[in-house]
């Protein structure tokens, strides 16, 4: 399977232009890197993360990273051949910020899953660009795989197996990625003004949206409370499914 993934990545990379195939950097054979004073893959990735935090994916290019490093763009290609490689390396770099309890293998699986969900959300809100990449690019780097291993291990201890295990792990991550993406999208606008406008719209047209109008403040509740309720509800539902022997 790994060999096939490597070959597929090489083949797809040929037809994907300058960005390469998503995740190809993890399957491609490492290339020999030319020595460049003061330049390394680690510095390039750190600079890319900083630029992504400031300008998002649309503001990222190898030329801009080179300018930030006071280097020539061609010298970057010896370390990161494509923009796609940079994106994959950057998303894995920020996954390293997700901490799990040192004794997570001995903890109750629910504690581990909730801790992961909270940490993943906090990371995605610190790096708003990461939520869209986490949902569209393979998370095949060492930091992401280490976190996936911890979540899978916790869910396996809980008794989940087979396709249900994979679906359960996906539900855990997808809930966080979706809610963080929504919050990040609102934050790009003047959120207070948008909330006021939506409140006014629903209030004015309450005949059309009577249930939303009746629960308006809950509908427009704060992000942290809504996320915590959603995360706990999901884990509680998973626990119930496991107890009922459906997993």
Could you list some keywords that capture this structure?
Arc Repressor Mutant, subunit A; disordered N terminus; Tetracycline Repressor, domain 2; mainly alpha; 247 residues
Question: How would you characterize this protein structure?
Answer:
The chain has two domains: 14-95, Arc Repressor Mutant, subunit A (Orthogonal Bundle); 109-243, Tetracycline Repressor, domain 2 (Orthogonal Bundle), CATH 1.10.357.10. The longest helix has 27 residues, at 162-188. The chain is an all-alpha fold. It contains 13 helices and no strands. The protein has helices spanning 2-14, 41-55, 62-68, 73-76, 83-95, 109-126, 129-134, 142-157, 162-188, 191-204, 210-214, 216-219, 223-243.
Described by strand count, sense and barrel closure, the largest sheet is: none
CATH superfamily of the largest domain: Tetracycline Repressor, domain 2
CATH topology of the largest domain: Tetracycline Repressor, domain 2
The unreliable regions are: 1-18
CATH 2nd-level architecture of the largest domain: Orthogonal Bundle
Q: Output the helix-strand order.
A: HHHHHHHHHHHHH
CATH class of the largest domain equals Mainly Alpha
The structural domain count equals 2
Helix vs. strand class: mainly alpha
What's the shape? Answer: flat
Mean pLDDT level? 84
Helix content: 55-70%
Q: What's the alpha carbon Rg, rounded to whole Å?
A: 21 Å
Distance between the termini: 27 Å
Number of strands: 0
Q: State which percent range the strand residues make up.
A: under 5%
Number of helices: 13
